[in-house]
Amino acid sequence: xxxxxxxxxxxxxxxxxxxxxxxxxxxxxxxxxxxxxxxxxxxxxxxxxxxxxxxxxxxxxxxxxxxxxxxxxxxxxxxxxxxxxxxxxxxxxxxxxxxxxxxxxxxxxxxxxxxxxxxxxxxxxxxxxxxxxxxxxxxxx
Length: 141
Known about the structure:
The protein has 141 residues and is of the alpha+beta class. It has 2 domains: 1-44; 45-126, NADH Oxidase, CATH 3.40.109.10. 47% of the residues lie in helices and 16% in strands. The protein contains 5 helices and 3 strands, in the order H-H-E-H-E-H-H-E. It has helices spanning 4-13, 16-40, 64-81, 92-98, 100-105; strands at 51-58, 85-88, 112-121. Strands 1-3-2 form a 3-stranded antiparallel beta sheet, with helices on both faces. The radius of gyration is 18 Å and the shape is globular.
């Protein structure tokens, strides 16, 4: 991105949303986070989360981007309702989209596009006050 010619080529190959995500978020984060990982073994992206949910859909389907953002929002709400800590991580989908080995590890079909990511885990801190709810039971058939 520091090279004018390289930046121009990248800008023309990507849509503006992905270009600015990489330029303004992914690259600055990697410059800061990779040294932390190499020096201290600190995972500052997923923060040692116990689980990660990836949201992907067929690239050709209508409104798949908007639908997946709604799904991510409901996923966050559901996780918090279950007492889990959850956070949407927007640095993960562009990385998976660009690296074929990651797509293979996560078994993402070639016709799909990864658009969302939620990390899940047990929260380090618990709030003493909050809305107490009894969860409805589920009968599996």
